[in-house]
# Entry
Amino acid sequence: AAGVIQSPRHLIKEKRETATLKCYPIPRHDTVYWYQQGPGQDPQFLISFYEKMQSDKGSIPDRFSAQQFSDYHSELNMSSLELGDSALYFCASSLEHGQVGYGYTFGSGTRLTVV
Amino acid sequence: AQKVTQAQTEISVVEKEDVTLDCVYETRDTTYYLFWYKQPPSGELVFLIRRNSFDEQNEISGRYSWNFQKSTSSFNFTITASQVVDSAVYFCALSEATYSGGGADGLTFGKGTHLIIQP
# Structure
């Protein structure tokens, strides 16, 4: 079965650079979520999109932005990177339509290292 | 505000023992969803179960079972006859169904329980 695809798997950036992470949800899933997981921490919700509109917002820094495109893939844009942004970034997708979190599946994550 | 507490930071057992991971949650909503995820050393988050607040039936899937008790706001996870491959960090998570017209809230995770199964 198709899963949530994230790219790239690993990314190394220098401080103050920008990074773009991509997420391709499971086909027919209408909601995409982004999470950040620091070393030894639990995943923290950043932002979500339902049918290409922002649905919910968590602890996403102002330096980060995200959007969902017409083909339902999503991109997380991160600017002015800081050392503290080094983390595992997960994308998840689900099929909502009145059934919260149906098929809520995570991608394998993008490991971002800021040096 | 919603909160998930996994009081057990780390549990170590010998293979074939049964082990229960505790999860206690807080929410003001009457409609909510509970999840368990497994995170092996490779880092991916593997979905184990999703349960809505109206379904208090316990569930069994192979060696895994879940005990949902609204009266104590708990959603505990038991592994029977544990195996070394069960070694991982296990997360309990909560989502409140506070949206309207579609789109769910993000999950609130507990801090996770690191389960070590020794051969």
In short: Chain A touches chain B at residues 30-31, 33, 35, 41-51, 53, 55-56, 58, 88, 90, 92, 94, 96-98, 100-102, 104-109, 111 (CB under 8 Å). The CA atoms of residues 47 and 69 of chain A lie 15 Å apart.
